[in-house]
Amino acid sequence: MIQSLFCEGFRYVPASPAGLNASMSAQTVREAQMPADELDGILETVRRLCARFPGEYWRARDRERSYPAAFVQALTEAGLLGVLIPEAYGGSGLGLSAAAAILEEIHASGCNAAAVHAQMYTMGTLLRHGSEAQKQAWLPQIASGALRLQAFGVTEPTAGTDTTSIATQAVRRGETYVINGQKVWTSRAEHSDLMILLARTTPKAETRKKTEGLSVFLVDMRQAVGRGLTIKPIRTMFNHATTEVFFDDLEIPASSLIGEEGKGFRYILDGMNAERILIAAECVGDGRWFVDKARDYAQGRVVFGRPIGQNQGVQFPIARAYAQVRAARLMTYEAAARYEAGAPAGEEANMAKMLASEASWAAADMCVQTHGGFGFAEEYDVERKFRETRLYQVAPISTNLILAYLAEHVLGLPRSY
Known about the structure:
Layout: E1 5-8, E2 11-14, H1 21-32, H2 36-51, H3 55-64, H4 69-77, H5 96-108, H6 117-121, H7 123-129, H8 132-144, E3 149-153, E4 169-173, E5 176-184, E6 194-200, E7 214-220, H9 221-224, E8 229-234, E9 242-253, E10 257-258, H10 264-300, E11 302-303, E12 306-307, H11 312-340, H12 346-371, H13 382-390, H14 399-410
Helix pairs in contact: 1-2, 1-5, 2-5, 5-10, 7-10, 10-11, 10-12, 11-12, 12-13, 12-14
């Protein structure tokens, strides 16, 4: 195998055949403020696990549009999905930087964490705002893998990214809430036991501010399906297990409410920042995979008597993609560090998600171009990863809305929408 390169300061030196992994783990140690051997051990576990699920496994899942159950189970058994859960509840008690490093490594290894990442970014809502009784009831089971928290019910067909305009209602009736409404793009709902749900408990017209009157619930989907909760799959251009969810007089216990009634918008925003940081890490991992894949192909593909990678027209786009991915990674882990420290991270989380998604998409386009016709061949995995990474310029949160946020809330420009 051709050795990878990694950046040590501004000097490029050869790395082990593990790709960019060695440099990434060392840098992540500093950013995550964890002992080097602890994080390196975790990432080595990720690499070994992912090696058991090569391209053939993911191509089969993609053709069948089937859930990667065996992969999810392997991650669960390795304890990787419980990294954010405190040790007191059976988890590892690590920070967001460690979770980001795990997801990055999964994607850099050619796998796809879309089937599991929600458990990490929705966890913050329960950890930061849930009651002790809720944590005791749910976290140990999630940490052990007995329950999956993979569904995040926020987006609605008529509201889109205008979250304050959602129409799903939760009405208090004695010791229950009755929920009516619809969610869309609720991924993994068919494979999750629990859902974090955002609903209106006070009509928008009756609130002083449009961000008020929204509440967050932890819904036990095992009890809800067929009793007021209906799930309808949506087939998309790649294998993402996404759905529409319908609520028709679904009754849930009042104890399902997370935090205070009416304060849910703030809770969800907190979770969305974590989501954007973790998705950015996945994009960085994709970018690394595309750069490695293109570099290896350019070294080995001989046309007109020499490797195509000898041509500047081939090597310059690869080099540019590498630089873009490295830069995006710096912002991603800066955002993670701020989030871990409890500092405001909205600016950094949004920039990380935008820069990383753009870097991974540019790397994907470069990788297809480097492979030529073979970039479209299923067996090379490039076209599958190309389709998968395109999502992240649209969701979660589109690039245009990130730019609007930065313009208004960071740069002080007039609101544009």
